[in-house]
């Protein structure tokens, strides 16, 4: 019994030391990302302690890869709010809370080391990227301005978003995914959030009415959308006229007499 208690005490002390060592880095990450809610911070630390208790490794430098799904969702919605708002098109989506949440929940955290190529010029642009930490260099073979840097808050790949939202034909965007016009290479360790093309397509295809409204907000409509809007307005006008017609007592009497006359005609026919 004494041996068991001694082992349990040693295990607890080991967990406490390990958690204390990781706590500083995790709290720094939370602070750098504007997560100041003490309650949420404590919940996250409790989850990390449980993970360590299960003798699972927890990478404090990549916290979003290990945390429970609930905490991932809460953190992404807080952290990515400002990142998404930096994109003119996506910033307008914030008016639709449901659509905004879908976009935030679809973001995937990606961690890259320095000198890693994210995408090369001419490759398929299959994700939109939002820089959360670190520095990414961009350059192209036909850019006279040379190398540029993307830092926290910057984004890349807005043309992919425009491509998915473009109401081309009846089936949506064309099959030809845009190609990257520039090369992206990590200058430092980088943390980015990626919005993959398949996730974007799923959001668009599964929320037709919301996306249609969003297209109208950003001025991305075609002749089909305009015809549908015109048909909807005409139908609304017809219903309004019908209700006005029925609200008039004289019209009600005329309608009632007309119905009786029709019934009589049917009886004698």
TrEMBL record:
It comes from the Eukaryota. It holds the Pfam family cNMP_binding. CDD domains: CAP_ED. Residues 103-171 form the Cyclic nucleotide-binding domain. Coiled coil: none annotated. InterPro entries: cNMP-bd_dom (IPR000595), cNMP-bd_dom_sf (IPR018490), RmlC-like_jellyroll (IPR014710). The keyword Cytoplasm does not apply. One of its GO terms (cellular component) is membrane. Keywords: Ion channel, Ion transport, Ligand-gated ion channel, Transport. GO terms for biological process: monoatomic ion transmembrane transport. This is Cyclic nucleotide-gated ion channel 1.
